[in-house]
Amino acid sequence: MIQELRDILFVDIETVASTPDYGTLTERIKTQWARKAGFFKRDSGQTDEALFHERAGIYAEFGKVICIAVGKFFDHESGELGLKTKIYAGHDEKALLTTFKSMLEKMDSSTLRFCAHNGKEFDYPYLCRRMLINGIPLPPVLNLSGKKAWEVQHLDTLELWKFGDHKNYTSLDLLAAIFDIPSSKNNIDGSQVNHVYHQEQGLDRISEYCRGDVVVLAQLFLKLKGYPLIADTHIVTA
Q1: Which residue ranges of the chain lie beneath pLDDT 50?
Q2: What local confidence, expressed as pLDDT, does residue 186 receive?
Q3: Strand 8-17 vs strand 235-237: parallel, antiparallel, or unpaired?
Q4: In what order do the strands lie in the sheet with 113-116?
Q5: Gyration radius (Cα) of the chain, Å
Q6: Residue 179 gets which letter from DSSP?
Q7: Is residue 30, in this structure, part of any structural domain at all?
Q8: Which one, out of 17, 95, 100, 191, has a CA that is 20 to 30 A from the CA of 80?
Q9: Parallel/antiparallel/unpaired status of strands 8-17 and 63-75
C-alpha cells in the first residue's frame, strides 16, 4: 500500500436531538436552548420546541451520537487497494462511545490519522464533547490539549478542497457529484436523520446511510490525492 494511505481512519458520525420529547428537558436546559435558538432565523410562529427537533442534533450540548462509521484502507487479495468499513450504532450513547474509544485505543495513536469531511469543525469536536459529557476520558488520538497545530494528525477533506479559501462550504455530496463518485444519498439525507431516528425508529437505515458516507469520504480522499477509485467489489464491511 502507498505510504500516505496507511494508518488513516475515515470517520463519519450521525447525531440527533438528545430526546424526542422537548417536554422532558429540564427547565435549565430549556432556558439555555431558548438562548441558543434566539440566534436562529425562524419561520413565522416557529417555536423553540420546533427548532429543537429541527436543529438540536447539530450541537453537542443538546444532541447525541447514535452512529459512527469508520473505514480503513487495506491490501485486497487482488493486489489492489481495498476499503474495510465498520459501523458502531446504538441508542445508549455512553456504551457506543465507550466501544468506539476501545477500538481507537487498540490502534497506534502515534501514527493514526483521522479523516472526515468538515471533521475539524464538526465530527472531531462533537465526539470529544459528547465523550466528556458522558464522563469518558478522551483517547490519546482525540486529546488535543497542549498539542501544537503540526502535531495534530487529523485530516479534513473539506480543508483539502479549500486550498486555503475559507469563504465557502462545499458539501460531501457536491464533491461526490463533481468527481463522479457514487452517492450515499439513496434513501435518506442528513436533514431527515432526526425524524427517521426519533419518529420511525430507523437506526438501521441511518447506519447504512452513515456507512455510505464513509465510503464516499474515502473515495473522495483518493480523488483529491490523484488516485483511482476503489472498485465496489473491494469494499467490505467488518
Answers
A1: none
A2: 63
A3: unpaired
A4: 155-156, 113-116, 8-17, 63-75, 81-89, 235-237
A5: 18
A6: T
A7: no
A8: 100
A9: antiparallel
CATH number of the domain residue 175 falls in = 3.30.420.10
Asked, for residue 43, whether it belongs to a domain, the answer is: no
Gap between the Cα atoms of 62 and 236, Å rounded: 34
Cell of 31: 432556558
Percent helix, strand, coil in the chain (nearest 5)?
45, 15, 40
Write out the residue range of the structural domain in which residue 92 sits.
3-18+62-237
Q: Compute CA distances 206 → 17, 21, 23, 189, whole Å.
A: 14, 20, 25, 9
User: Quick check: pTM over 0.85?
Assistant: yes
Asked if residue 116 belongs to a domain, the reply is yes
CB-based contact 68:100 (threshold 8 Å): yes
Q: Tell whether 123 is covered by a domain.
A: yes
Query: How far apart are alpha carbons 89 and 20 in whole angstroms?
Result: 18
Task: State the DSSP string of 132-177.
Answer: HHTTPPPPTTT--TT--GGG---EEHHHHHHTT--S----HHHHHH
The predicted structure's pLDDT at residue 107: 92
Which residues lie closer than 8 Å to 9 by C-beta, 6 or more apart? 70, 71, 72, 104, 107, 112, 113, 114, 115
Q: Closest Cα partner for 14 from 111, 113, 94, 88?
A: 88
pLDDT for 202-212, tens place per residue? 999 999 999 99
